[in-house]
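Final report, section 2: Outcomes. Of the targets proposed, Right handed beta helix domain-containing protein is the one most frequently requested by collaborating groups, and we therefore present its record in full.
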Amino acid sequence: AIENIALDGNRANNENLNGNYAGCIFAQDCSWLTFRNVEARNYNGDGMSWQICHDVVVENCHSHDHNGLGLHPGSGSQRPVMRGNKLERNNIGIFFCWGVRHGIAENNINIENDIGISIGHRDTDNYILNNDVLRSKKKGIVFRPDTRGKDFGPHRNRVEKNRIIDSGNDAGIGVDVRGNIRDILLKENEIRETRGARRRVGIHVGKQTREVKLEGNKIEGFMAPVVRETKDP
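The predicted structure is given below as tokens.
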């Protein structure tokens, strides 16, 4: 376990280091790690990154002001649990990398990241629950498209009971689901825009997606609450 410590990356005086290889905390090929009550700040890269690490628990941490990612469950990592963390002013708050499966992101607070939560490349069977995603500069929650084939998408993920508020610019999107993706559930989320409707969209569903289910979401303040692209004939 790593706990009860503050780590300052001295971002202004260091070269950028790719989050696949470094971070305020970095781990590779490990299991059963716990990061608890850690403040990671000002790194020219990622705050906390773990690659091919299984059963990692990150709880009650504060990861902020990084050039890269706040939390980076990396390629092939199984069953990560990210709970009760605060992610502020990063490029992306929580970034599910490649092949992250059976993970849980719950009760986290994401504030003023470029993107709040991003999930893609074979990240399947994950649960994004009861998070606050506030004032993201580009988009709130993003399902990344992948053009490499039908099995490269982030299938069978649940996004439930999150609060996604004031995402992006005048054409901002609260939740953006694109690419060859199937079996996604967006349920009982509160998606709000308080700055005026402009060209803003609550939920955008791309034409290549399949079986994206919307259940009981509360969507307010947008030009269009939901946009579903027309599928090609």
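The domain at 2-228 is CATH 2.160.20.10 (Pectate Lyase C-like).
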